[in-house]
Structure formats: C-alpha cells, structure tokens
Design a protein that fits this description.
The complex is a heterodimer. By secondary structure, chain A is mostly helical. In chain A, 75% of the residues lie in helices and 0% in strands. Chain A is globular, with a radius of gyration of 23 Å. Chain B has a single domain, classed as MetI-like (MetI-like fold), CATH 1.10.3720. Helices cover 76% and strands 0% of the residues of chain B. In chain B, helix 3 runs parallel beside helix 7 and helix 12 runs antiparallel to helix 13. By secondary structure, chain B is mainly α. The radius of gyration of chain B is 23 Å and the shape is globular. Chain B is built from 13 helices and no strands. The chains are: A mainly alpha, B mainly alpha. At the A-B interface, helix 1, helix 4, helix 5, helix 6 and helix 7 of A face helix 1, helix 3, helix 4, helix 5 and helix 7 of B.
Chain lengths: 276, 286
C-alpha cells in the first residue's frame, strides 16, 4: 500500500516498529550478562565485558530452586500433554463418529469450557484434591491440567477428524480389526498434525501456567519454573541479574521449541482465521 | 456402548470431575457463608450476590477489569492490523519480523511481568530515557495510582499484540490478489480497496482476535499478582480474577469469593456470546 514511489518505505517502517517492539526483550537478554549495579545504571547498554556470574549463581543456588522447578515443570508438562493428547484424541474421535444430538451437547459443553477462568473452579478443586490426598502433589496438578485443558484438545482433534474419511475405518473393520486397533493403527497416525498442534500449544500453556501451580502445588511443596521465578523475586528483590538469568534459563526450552516449530504455531492458531 | 466406555468416558469423566462439577459446587458455595476457618457454614440464599453489588471493592474491581478489557481488546487489534498490513509480504525479512512480534505470546506471563517491572521502575529504562529527553519528573508508571492501570494495559497489549498480528496476517493471505488488482485497474485507491475488499474479508480474523482478547483480558490475574498486587493504593489495579483469589484463598471467605467467581463467569459468558453474535453476523453479510 506504500505504492511504488517509495519501495524502501515498507521495510523501513516494518524494521523500525519491530525494533521498538523488541526493546523489552533486548533489555531482558542483555541484563542476564551484566552485574547488579550496571543493570540499574545503564539497563540498555551492551554487556561488555559479559559476565556469566548471574547464570552461574542461578545454577548453583544452595536451595536448588532452579533445578527443582525445572524438574517439576518437565514432569508436569510432559505427563499432562501425553495424557491430554491420548484422551482428547479418543474423545474427539468418539464424538465425531458417534454423532447425533447427545454428541453435539457434549461438544457444546466442552467448547464452553474453553473460556472458563480457573478462578471459578479452583476453590472446589482444592477440596476435591484434599479429599483424594492429591493437594500439593504433582499428580494432583497433572489431573487438574488434564480436566482443564481437555476441551482444547478435543476441539483440535474433532476438527481434524472430520477430514478423515470414515470408509478407511470401515475397511479396516471389515478386515477384522477391532475398534481399538483401528483407532491406534489407522486413525491416530493420520491425526499427527492435530497431535502436533495439541502437544505444542498445551505444552507451552502448561509450561507457562502460573495460577494453577501456585494454588495446587502450594507455596511449600516445590515450585514449577514460573512459580519458582515468582518466588525468587520475593526473596532477592535486589538481585535482578539473578532473576533475569533464571527467566532466560526457564524460557530457553520454550523459545527453542517455538523457533523450530513456528510454522505449526502459526498454522494451529490461524486455522479458523481464513474462510474456506 | 462399549465405544462410549472406552473412548468417550475417560475424557468426559475428568472434564466433569474437574470443570463441570466444580462450577456447580462453586455455585453451591456462593449460597453459603462458607469459611473453612470460621464454621458453622450456613445457607444464606442470594445474600452474597446482594452484598456483592453494594461492595465498593467489588464495584471497583468491575471497573478496573472493564477498563483493562477495553484497552486489551482495542489496542492489540488496531495496532495488530496496522502491523499485519505492513508485514504482509513474502520473504525471510518479513517472516523474521513476524517471529519477533509473536515471541511475547509464547513467553510466560511472569517473565513478561518482571521484564516490564524493571522497564517501568523509577530508575528503569523508560524513565531514564525520558529524563535524558528533558522530562524532569517522569511519571511513576507502576507506583502512581492514576497510571498503574494503564501501564498494566500497555504491558498486556504488548504481550498479546503478536497474536493479533499473526491472525490478521493469515486473514490477509486469504484476500485474493487479482481482486485487489482488478479494483486498482478500475481506479480504486488504496483506502477504497482496503475499505471495500480487504476489511470485509478480514471479518473472521477480527472475530477471533476480539473474542480471544476479551476472554484473556477479562481473566487477567498473573500480571496483577506479579506486578502490582492490586495496588498502588487500594485496589486501583485489582481485577475481579485477582479479588476472587484474594477473598477465597487469602481471606478464606470462600462463600463470598464463589459468588464473585460465578458473577465473573456469567459476565464473561454473556459478553462473549454478545460479541460473537454481533461479529459473526458481520461475517455472514459478506
């Protein structure tokens, strides 16, 4: 729309806007490699000479906050997304193939779950988990995650299922395969793009989750990566170098994941943005 | 039946146990004065709801949440569309810039919050730069009660902007180039082409962005908890989502907090339904 008179205008505007937008990320990044006084004196300067003290101090904290949080986050995220992928693929398959009014009602109930704020359910959830002796445990949080995020999984799988011809399953069934075999051998492999979307999105969401681990794991029983960072600002208000280092280390897995799988992120997000 | 038991039931069971049933239980709590540390629990009917709408703290949080929601629905949508129009070209350069804009979306809210706490601090980059430009007394972005809420709005908008950009970019890719060309040949200027071709075809993207921003903004909790703790002053940035947690888990007034949470759910569901209805009607008219 800039016309042909100024072909340089578009890239210049694009670059300038992006640079401005990038400033907060740049500041966070360079401050990982600066010492405390420099962070407040000149937040935007390049870290020359760079120091690894902040990173080292995070990795060698005596309370092992970073390592404990990392382990918890990996276990919680990993278990949650594997269970979620399997459960929601099966439920999505069931709802699409069974059809009928009852399936549509269930689907509608699930879809309305996409907008329910955790605040509305957390109070009763803590009671349920207490009764099951799962409060402040990793298993409890995983169980909650599965229930809370299953609507998203079903939404993605059901959408994708509709593009898989039912004849394929019928043919396999005529050949004598049972329903479970047909699903796992024939359908599930075809659902791979949907599985990728579910794993990627829920992986990032659950990794970044803050309120649910804060309440369900509680303050005493270990932290995830996000509640760990939160706890570290409470304790060492002054040491922003350490906090920035921990933030970078905690974000690195997500960033690497994102940079490699960008295409999937964009595709998954924008499936409904275009018509036809 | 077997199909249901093996394929349908497990997923439905966890959803019912951890989402649907808790909503019903929450509603039940909201009709009592339940406080685990202050028994006995009694049925109080709709008293909590009546109190809620006379409670200045709740009315304040309603105001705070509404202002924040308006900012987060409008700012990322408008800027996101503008940026998408600029980035709507092929090639590595524009792809790389799109990556930059989307990065905050995949970052944790806690990380984003802490980055901005430093930027907006009195000795942070923003005020240092303002002083460098000759502003003697730059505002306390997060410490001044009249700025803090808008600062939160800026932070949230920054984090969500990339989402809108990416959705609009996808929408723009669905606009047929030959249609725009034909219009140009017929003498339509860039503004007319945008108004009559591009903008109507972006209707589905607008719907997605508006609904997602609405739901995201309405339940904002993390940023408030990390950045302002509801302050400065009394409740100047306390959203409903923040007050539910404070009332329920810190003050342990679980009956009252549940009434607040149910009210929040009703508002969010109502607002989403209305917005969806309006925006989807626009889509159909195409």
């Amino acid at each position: 729309m800039t016309g042909d008179r100024a072909p340089w205008l578009r890239p210049m505007v694009a670059l300038a806007t992006s640079v401005l937008f990038f400033v907060p990320l740049y500041v966070a990044l360079v401050n990982v490699f600066k010492d405390g006084p420099k962070i407040s004196e000149s937040p935007a300067s390049l870290p020359i000479p760079p120091t690894l003290d902040n990173v080292r101090s995070v990795l060698t904290r005596p309370d092992r906050l970073f390592w404990v949080s990392l382990t918890n986050s990996v276990v919680i995220t990993g278990l949650s997304i594997i269970i979620l992928t399997v459960l929601s693929a099966m439920l999505g398959h069931y709802l699409v193939r069974a059809g009928g009014r009852w399936s549509r009602v269930v689907m509608l109930l699930l879809l309305s779950g996409l907008m329910i704020p955790p605040q509305v359910i957390l109070l009763p959830i803590t009671r349920v988990l207490q009764t099951l002796h799962l409060m402040t445990t990793v298993q409890g949080l995983v169980l909650f995650n599965v229930g809370y995020y299953v609507p998203f999984g079903v939404f993605v799988f059901a959408g994708f299922m509709r593009s898989i011809p039912v004849e394929l399953e019928e043919a396999a069934a005529i050949d004598g395969a049972g329903r479970a075999t047909v699903f796992w051998r024939v359908v599930f492999p075809l659902l791979r793009p949907a599985s990728a979307s579910v794993l990627i999105f829920l992986g990032v969401w659950i990794w970044n989750d803050f309120l649910n681990p804060l309440i369900i794991l509680g303050p005493g029983q270990g932290t995830t990566i996000t509640t760990g960072i939160y706890r570290s600002i409470g304790q060492y208000q002054a040491d922003f170098g350490g906090v920035f280092a921990m933030m970078l280390l905690a974000t690195l897995p997500v960033l690497v994941f994102y940079l490699f799988l960008q295409r999937h992120f964009v595709k998954g997000l924008t499936g409904g943005a275009t018509k036809g | 039946m077997l199909h249901f038991l093996t394929f349908g039931a497990p997923g439905i069971a966890v959803y019912v146990c951890f989402v649907l049933a808790p909503i019903v239980v929450s509603f039940g709590y909201s009709l009592t004065n339940y406080n685990p540390f202050n028994p006995p629990t009694e049925y109080v009917g709709l008293r909590n709801y009546r109190l809620l709408f006379q409670d200045p703290e709740f009315l304040m949080s309603l105001r705070v949440t509404t202002i924040l929601t308006v900012i987060v629905v409008v700012v990322p949508n408008v800027l996101g569309l503008a940026i998408a129009l600029v980035l709507d070209r092929r090639g590595w350069f524009y792809n790389a810039l799109r990556t930059v804009f989307f990065t905050p979306v995949v970052l944790s809210t806690v990380v984003v919050s802490i980055i901005w706490v430093r930027l907006m601090a009195d000795d942070g980059l923003i005020n240092q730069s303002l002083r460098g430009l000759g502003v003697d007394d730059p505002p306390g972005w997060l410490s001044d009660p009249s700025y803090a809420l808008y600062s939160l709005g800026i932070i949230l908008s920054w984090q969500m902007l990339g989402f809108c950009v990416v959705v609009y970019l996808a929408g723009l890719q669905g606009v047929p180039g030959d249609l725009l060309e034909a219009a140009a040949i017929d003498g339509a200027g860039p503004v007319a082409r945008f108004r009559h071709i591009t903008w109507p075809m972006l209707a589905p993207a607008l719907t997605i962005n508006t609904v997602v921003m609405l739901i995201t903004a309405f339940k904002v909790y993390d940023h408030v908890q990390v950045i302002t703790k509801g302050g400065p002053g009394s409740g100047t940035t306390a959203t409903i989502a923040y007050n539910v947690i404070q009332t329920g888990f810190v003050a342990n007034r679980q009956g009252y907090a549940s009434a607040m949470a149910i009210t929040m759910l009703v508002i969010i569901a109502g607002a989403t339904a209305v917005v969806l209805k309006i925006l989807q009607r626009r889509e159909v008219q195409l």
